Backbone:
């Protein structure tokens, strides 16, 4: 995972899928970066490399959303793979992460 501060946005690029095998490491990296960059007013998570998000990965995203709300930070997800975007839309979470809802076909 890569984290960098641009203007007042903390940008995270997740290096792969969000699965039970790596979620603890990703969570620790995310929280460390948020703690380090106290001037950030928003957090942007790029999920372009995550083709799969399992239940633990989804739990990570939801807990990150809660943590950002607690810290008064805006959280957005960018560039999700279609199946990840679909999952968030089906669970009515897309708009919470700054994504448009997908229309059911």
Residues:
């Amino acid at each position: 995972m890569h984290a960098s501060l641009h203007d007042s946005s903390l940008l995270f690029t997740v290096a792969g899928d969000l699965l039970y095998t790596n979620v603890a490491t990703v969570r620790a990296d995310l929280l460390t970066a948020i703690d380090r960059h106290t001037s950030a007013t928003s957090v942007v998570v790029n999920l372009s490399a995550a083709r799969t998000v399992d239940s633990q990965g989804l739990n990570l995203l939801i807990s990150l959303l809660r943590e950002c709300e607690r810290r008064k930070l805006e959280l957005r997800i960018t560039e999700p793979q279609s199946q990840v975007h679909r999952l968030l839309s089906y669970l009515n979470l897309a708009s919470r992460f700054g994504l448009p809802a997908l229309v059911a076909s």
Remarks:
- The chain is about 35% helix and 20% strand.
